[in-house]
Design a protein that fits this description.
Bound molecules: 2-oxoglutaric acid
Radius of gyration: 17 Å
Strand order of the largest sheet: 1-9-6-11-4-3-2
Low-confidence stretches: none
Shape: globular
Structural class: alpha+beta
Number of domains: 1
Strand content: 15-25%
Oligomer: single chain
Number of helices: 5
CATH architecture: Sandwich
Number of strands: 11
Length: about 250
């Protein structure tokens, strides 16, 4: 298990992200891949019932790709109330050690999701999670992004701008978007792709500029994403769960 001494909190504070290798061993990986496929199938078989949790690829890909992405799920959120394995992993010390070291506190789960990025899956344009998605409750948030597949630029690994969280800037959106940062605020010469192996984790700050491209390969790039707040703030996002069973 990771000790706090092995987690470079100073580096996280400087760069706004931190890689933690080998959070899942091979048997956990096999189990979580199977659970991911099970939950994906459950939702795909009854999309009306699970509609509130489902984001579809067709709503995010270029027009030219729409016909081939019909019926493909991009994201399920939340998942930890649908599947005990996701709930258990959110409390696994191998995952929580890093956010705990960063906060200097134990953690509460703020948000959880399964991002599929199956072959042909769509990009997440440059964004900051705080300004595009949350702006609520607290910005003391650490996101833990755990890969279920090897990820590199060909299948859409995360790319980041190290240090872009410093000073908690809130950049303007691209015109017409409520998600994507205006490209003028993304210093392309500082962009770093972060290719990782299945079972590795990247933790990042809620103001960090990050991006992922299309999955241009023929292999999936699934990831489980947990965001935590410090336990001293309590359960600040309890209402994220839809009605039971939906
Ligand atoms: O799944 C991805 O590639 C990116 C997801 C992301 O940026 C986010 O959830 O904020």
């Amino acid at each position: 298990m990771l000790s706090e001494a092995t987690i470079d909190v100073d580096r996280y504070k400087r760069e706004g992200y931190l890689v933690v290798p080998g959070v899942l061993d091979s048997s956990q990986l096999a189990q979580m891949r199977a659970e991911a496929r099970r939950v994906l199938q459950t939702c795909a078989e009854d999309p009306e019932r699970y509609a509130i949790r489902i984001e579809w690829e067709v709503d995010n890909v270029d027009e030219s790709r729409r016909s081939q992405m019909q019926g493909v799920i991009r994201k399920l959120e939340p998942v930890s109330d649908l599947d005990q394995a996701f709930a258990d992993l959110a409390r696994d010390p191998a995952v929580t050690a890093a956010p705990e070291a960063i906060f200097g506190d134990s953690v509460e789960l703020f948000e959880d999701k399964l991002n599929l990025k199956l072959p042909g899956g769509s990009p997440y344009p440059w964004h900051q999670d705080w300004s595009c998605c949350w702006r609520a409750n607290t910005d003391e948030l650490v996101t833990c992004f755990i890969y279920l597949d090897d990820a590199d630029e060909s299948n859409g690994c995360l790319q980041v701008v190290p240090g872009s969280h410093i000073g908690k800037p809130i950049h303007p959106f691209r015109q017409g978007s409520h998600f994507e940062v205006d490209p003028a605020y993304v210093p392309q010469d500082r962009v770093v792709p972060v290719p990782l192996k299945a079972g590795d984790m990247i933790c990042f700050d809620s103001y960090l500029l990050h991006y992922s491209d299309y999955n241009r390969s023929d292999v999936p790039r699934m990831a489980i994403i947990y965001t935590y707040n410090p336990a001293r703030l309590g359960k600040v996002n309890e209402h994220r769960f839809p009605d039971p069973g939906h």
